[in-house]
Automatic annotation (TrEMBL):
Primary site of residence: membrane
Domain Methylamine utilisation protein MauE: 11-83
Subcellular location: Membrane
Keyword Transmembrane helix (UniProt): yes
Annotated source species: Rhodococcus triatomae
Membrane topology annotation: Multi-pass membrane protein
Record protein name field: Uncharacterized membrane protein
Length: 136
């Protein structure tokens, strides 16, 4: 396996673990996620929490399977862009809150730029060779 293919496989597996873990948390601790759903979205926050949890689980699973990894990488990149408004909402809420510490506020704001390397890793995961493809 080439260095690029190995890097792509590692990206896919790491993102898969991240997404499967985060997706599971949407069902284990939904109140946290409900709180960061942008208030401008219509409907119930819990619906968005569960829908995004299902999306994260599905995308995470697709990254595990070599045959669906290319699609999974594309979907992961799109998902990381789609959830960015929730991350912004969390940062705004935490910065404005008297209940969050300075460290929590810094963490909430500091994690916003981390979406960029996540999108890059998702796009890298797309380059993992599928069965029958030797990456020439």
């Amino acid at each position: 396996m080439s260095r690029n293919a190995t890097s792509a496989r590692r990206s896919a597996l790491a993102l898969s673990g991240l997404l499967l873990g985060a997706g599971s948390l949407h069902f284990v601790a939904p109140k946290f996620f409900d709180a960061i759903v942008p208030r401008s979205l219509p409907g119930d926050a819990r619906t968005y929490t569960y829908a995004s949890g299902v999306a994260e689980l599905a995308v995470g699973a697709s990254l595990l399977v070599p045959r669906t990894r290319r699609l999974g990488g594309t979907a992961a990149a799109a998902l990381f862009v789609a959830v960015f408004p929730a991350n912004v909402q969390m940062a705004v809420d935490w910065v404005r809150s008297d209940k969050t510490s300075s460290a929590q506020k810094a963490l909430a704001v500091g994690r916003l730029p981390l979406q960029v390397p996540l999108v890059i890793a998702a796009l890298r995961a797309r380059r993992s060779p599928t069965p029958g493809h030797h990456g020439h």
